[in-house]
Amino acid sequence: MRAVGLHADVVVITSRIWQTTCTLVRSGEEAFCVDSPILPDELELVPAIAQQAQFQVMGLLATHADWDHLLGGYAFPDAPMGCAASTAQALAGRPGNAQRELRDFDEQYYVERSRPFGLTAPQELPTPGHCSIGDRELELHPAPGHSGDGMALWAPWIRVLICGDYLSPVEIPMLSDGGSVEEYLHTLDRLEPLVSAAEWVIPGHGEPLDGQRARAILREDRAYMEALSRDGDGARLPLARRTQAQRKAHSANVARSAGKP
Q: Could you write out the DSSP letters of every residue in the chain?
């Protein structure tokens, strides 16, 4: 696990598994924990990192309904969770799904946790909309495409974009349940002006990106998704992400974009 301070008001924690990111963002006396690392020892360390940085975490935010972004309650069990209305609806429509997927992961990798994964009904947040934090506001932007739900968060006072499962330096764009090429491209269009203004972009998987690198990844991801729509299996993967694992993800994208399970 890595923890990096990008700004006095932002700490990014990156899991050893899938490089899933967890972001602590602060304004004044209030802080939020956005998404989560995965492994038990990582989750146990998050409160200590927050305390050391003098972040008083008052709530959790989830960028989307994938289980690996929903584990913040292990770190802050008393903190309420907020998410896009689309994410709350996705969770309500698949009751127990995140718990089952976490259990499958833990069984596969022999992971033991101190207690079962409890997920209470989250607070629905409007997207587009705003969420108060201290004396400032986070901007909330709809971000479907990877899945059928989700949001990206823009902290304008520090020019930081937390974008969920987009703009990853280690993963190609991925279509999961409910995702679509068309919506993915629409989300990239919505994110583009924020990326252009950003000092830092924090993807759901992979290290934080400076604005220049994030803009380059956005161009690559748009080109890939357009090629996926046009060429299917013949679409070329971004050069730095042509690993065996990402070729397998590409095959899954081809099947999903063709409407196959």
A: -EEEEEETTEEEEE-SSTTBEEEEEEETTEEEEEE---SHHHHHHHHHHHHHTT--EEEEEESSS-GGG-THHHH-TTS-EEEEHHHHHHHHHSTTHHHHHHHHHHHHHT---SS----PPPEEE-SSEEEEETTEEEEEEE--SSSS--EEEEETTTTEEE-SSSS-SSS-----TT--HHHHHHHHHHHHHHHHH-SEEE-SBS--EEHHHHHHHHHHHHHHHHHHHHHGGGPPPPGGG--HHHHHHHHHHHHHHTT--
Place of tokens 């960028």: 63
- Per-residue pLDDT tens digits for 12-70: 999 999 999 999 999 999 999 999 999 999 999 999 999 999 999 999 999 999 999 99
CA distance 131 to 137: 5
Q: Which amino acid is at 205?
A: H
Quote the pTM value: 0.95
Are 26 and 13 in contact by the 8 Å Cβ rule? The answer is no
Domain ranges of the chain: 2-257
- Asked if 72 contacts 50 with a C-beta cutoff of 8 angstroms, the reply is no
Q: For 2-257, which CATH superfamily applies?
A: Ribonuclease Z/Hydroxyacylglutathione hydrolase-like (3.60.15.10)
Beta bridge partners of 3: 13
Residue count (the chain): 261
**What is the Cα–Cα distance from 74 to 98, expressed in whole angstroms?**
14
